[in-house]
Structures are given as structure tokens and as C-alpha cells.
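Most newcomers find our protein records easier to grasp once they have seen one. To make this concrete, we reproduce a full record directly below:

…
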Amino acid sequence: MTQLNVPLEPNEEQRAQLHDAVMAFAERFVAARASAPASSSTADDTRLRRLLTPPGERARPLDRVLEDFADALDTGFDTTSPGFLSYIPSGGIYTSALAGFLGAVTNRYTGGSHASPGCVAMEESVIRWMTSLFGLPETAGGVLLSGGSIANLTAVVTARSRFGEDFRRGVIYASTAAHHSLSKSARIAGIAADRVRRVPTTSQLTIDVDALRAAIAADRAAGLRPMMIVSNAGTTDTGSIDPIAECATVAKSQGAWHHVDAAYGGFFQLTVRGRERLESISLADSITIDAHKSLFLPFGIGGLLVRDRSTLAEAHEGRGSYMQDVAAGELPHYFSMGPELTRPNRGLAVWLPLQIHGIAPFREALDHMLDLAEWAAEQISAMPEFELVCECELSVVAFRAVAGDAESRRIFEAVNATRELHLSSTTVDGHFVLRLAFLSQRTDMCVARRAVELLGRISASA
């Protein structure tokens, strides 16, 4: 047992011991990813009780502490496995993990540019790259946040602020396939549930623009006004992309804020196919993005981009008297652009990987994800026992068993029981639907082939 008795400010030798032990743990973990199962056996109560034990007064040996962490990792599903095809995967590339370590060691405050102008400048360079990627004008800006949910909340608050004080007459419109965080965001922002309209979708699970117009007309007749119209740039359930240009036209004609939720699909904009499918995203007033999805970064790196950066400040500006010496400058104060005052050096986790790798490898990886999904969709649609529930537009393949929901569920449970792969499910038009989500740099054609083989074998075993 390694008993270090490390003080809060360790010396050079102690830092080296800690670093070596932790890096050795990390190296063993990363080296095992290629063959890692996609899920673990069910956690036993004894293990969980041990992990629930509160910290004690005395130090514990580091190797025992790391053993406990390894035990904790060996529960649930493994989002770093090549076979993890559930929800929307997060690649968690290694260089971003190193950025997280450096960011925590240097521990710079980046809420205000007065405190660390250099680090804020680095983060701002990432924001400007993103706004340029989506074709937003020079007035655009943005803020990196913990994820898509907080980004959607920030967008709702910004739209509410722009609408004016009488926001109780304002209505938010989003399709029935839109992310549930939008309704949650409205509730947190004080917008009543009966002011959120869930608009029906087409057979391709995209928003029905005619139904949207009809809903707006009915609300106008009732004395209400459109506050916000949401387009999806890749739904979580099926990867479906709304007709962004049509939604933008409706929003402009109604004086409503047009928000595009591109948390999942946004960075496919780097690819030729993605740009074609996300056409007109440049018309948005705001765009939710998640770098921990389609930029393969670790969890906790999302953001909101806006057409006019001043709209964020108008909605979120606020400071205490202890901040009276903080003046405005050329660089932004991110505390005035979102809900966070204290925030980590989040930009480093994006900036460092982009600097080390360049943009090209990210584009290539996203193209590969599109290739895998298109191949899997073709294979599954050719199998008589399955049917796709909609066209595969990005990297999610949504399908179900022709025999019905019970068979779909049986296949789903049998695939996950192998632990080679992990799938998630959803409900479409009342039916149980399986999903294959390709969005990890570790997932390759071998995994896609294995998924199709397993589906065929398990289906034939009925």
C-alpha cells in the first residue's frame, strides 16, 4: 500500500508520485479501450455501499483510492467503449483530457476577461471559429457552457428578454421530437407550460411547418404572440433535421426568436454532407452546440452561439458591488453572457485539441461516422425483419422489428446482454424503436459490422 500522507500543497517528489500513479492508471485504462465491453455487470449492493462511504479524517493509501475508482468505473455502461452506441456518445479524446488537467492545475478564472485576458482570448478564438463555421455575421458571439441543456436554457432566457416584460403572452414552438430540455428550460425561466407548443412532425419526424403556421395563427387569434421558434439540427431520438430555412422564414415574419438546437448535429457542419443537410443554419438567432458530442470532446463542453452578441448581455448582465472595478474591454466578460459567474477554463478543453490536431482530423472522423451510419442503415433496411422509422440524415440509425414492439424489445435486451454493444431505445408514434448512434472516434467499421451481425443473429433466434 502506498501511504503518501500528502499535504494540500505537495512538494516536487510528492507531485511526481501522485502524477506517476494517476498517469499509469489512465494509461492502463486508455490502452484497454479497444476491447472494452460496452457495459458492466450489474453493480452489487456491497460495492455501492462501500463507494457511498463518506471520507474520513485520516488519509488512505493512493493505490486503494484508485482501486475504488476502478470499481466505480466497472458499473453501468462504458461511454468510452467502441461498442457504446447509445444515446449520443461522447468520444472524450485524450488531448482534451490533458487540457482538463492543465486547466485545473493552472486554475485560471475565466468568467471575466479582467482576471485572465490571455485565457479568455484563447476561448474567444474558439468562439469566433465556431460563429464563422456556421456563417454567422461579424456581430455574432457566444459562450461555452456545460452542455446543451444549459445552452438551451440560456437561449430561452435570451429570447424571453428580447420579447419584453409581458412575456406571459409569448409562446415557444418546438416539434414533438425536440429535446425535453426546452420544456424544462421554459419552466425554469418562468414560462408557463401552456405557453410551450409541441408541434406535430412529418413522416420523417421533422417539424410540420404547416402545423406550425396553424398553431401560430390560433395563438394570435387568442391574443398571444410567438416568442421563440425552435428548429432541430439533429434530434436526439432519430437524428432528424428540421427544415431550418422554412422555420427561419416563419420566425422572421412573426418577429420571433429563431433558435436552432444543434447540440448533436452542429459540428457535422465541418463536412460537405453536413453543410448540405444543415443548409440555412446561418439564419438562426441562436445555435446550441455541444463539443462533447460531435467534436468528440469529454463531457461538460457545450455552448450557445448568437447572431448578435449584445442580446446575451442584455439578458444576463448583472454584478455585485464587489465587482465595481471590473471594466468593459475589448474581450468579453462571460459572466455577462450566461448564467455562470464562476466557471472553469472551459475554452482550453476545445482550444488545445484543435491546436494539436488541426481541424482536418475532426472533419475526417465526422465523415467516418456518417459513412458508418449510412452503411448500417442500408444493411438494416435490406433485412426483412427490420424497418427504418425515418431516413438516416446524420449518424443515428432508428429502426424497429417488423414483428412488433415485443420483438423489438427482445432484440434490444438481447443485444445489450452481450455487453459487446450497448444500444438505447426511444418511442416513435407509440412504437418501441432501437437506435444505433455512431459518434465516437473509437467506433469503426468492425463495430458497425458486429452490430448488424448481432441484430441478424438475434432476430433469427426468435
Summary: The chain has a mean pLDDT of 97. DSSP finds 16 helices and eleven strands in the chain. The longest strand covers residues 225-232. The longest helix spans residues 360-381.
